[in-house]
Design brief:
alpha+beta; 10-stranded mixed beta sheet; FAD/NAD(P)-binding domain; 353 residues; 8 helices
Amino acid sequence: MAIVGGGINGLCCAWELARQGHDVELFERGRLMDETSRASSKLLHGGLRYLETLQLRLVREALAERDQWFERAPQWARPLSIVIPIYGHGKRSRWQFGLGLWLYRRLAAHSPHRDYHWLPAEELTAIDPGLNPNGLIGGYRFTDGQMDDQQLGLWVAEQARQAGARLHEQAPVERIDSQGRLWQQGEEARQFDTVVNVAGPWAEQLARNSGLNLTHGLDLVRGSHIVLNRPCHQAYLAEHPQDRRIFFILPWKEGTLLGTTEVRQALDEPIACSDAEAQYLLDAYGNIVQPAATATEIRERFAGLRPLLRSRGNANHASREYTIERTGKAINVLGGKWTTAPALARKLPAIVR
């Protein structure tokens, strides 16, 4: 078995297939966990906002996988208490968020982290005196998860190695075919029983360049983040004051992580947080936490390119689901999200038989 792509989905596929007794080689064009998978919001979550677009199956699957990550790797993944501050001028009302959390709780089934509760405004401002009190009605507290994405991914890589998978870095793949052949630059074709293309944002390009027909395509959406050089006293899920998109304020390594944006871009454009995106996130933060932050407080910027299943609408409403397409001995994996990588991987053994 050949796996193309050393992000979290590729690594989980390598681990699962090796565990099932397959002879697995993984090819990564750069370093393992060095692209999209390490540029996430550092969240392991069901995706509360995906309920607005009725992605119920995805949310149920992600909530189950979130809890599995907590159990498998507690050194890199942990529950995180998050508050949703609700303001009188917000787009989403208390009852809308309450309904969403009720459904979130139902989809979490028997999870020990499924409960939520309401906190009045005065209690919220006592917890975090920096929370903007103007128009604040109160808020909901619920639990999702936080991870060190790069370290957790490298932990998965080590599990895959221990299961027998061979992981190759600095090993770009030029093309594959439906006969199970794989070509690297300047080398003869190598023959495999199955080649799995899990190259994330580059998966569609690899398939098209290889002459493989795809039913689905990808929309490439840049998600940018900034880290402020100031402590975060409470994690928040909140609305942006301009477009009412959901964004996060999160504790991260003695600082405050803000994310994320959603900007469509081409594969050949630089994957970097723009000044406009940084200001967008600063504006969002200043609407929730006082005093507002300035660009001089930004200690880090990073961005990742998300491979979303193609849609005609707003990127904010695009599906975070994944699809697996087979053409002969080639399997192409398109889409997917960090939290559900193990669930995706568990589907492969039945497909490759």
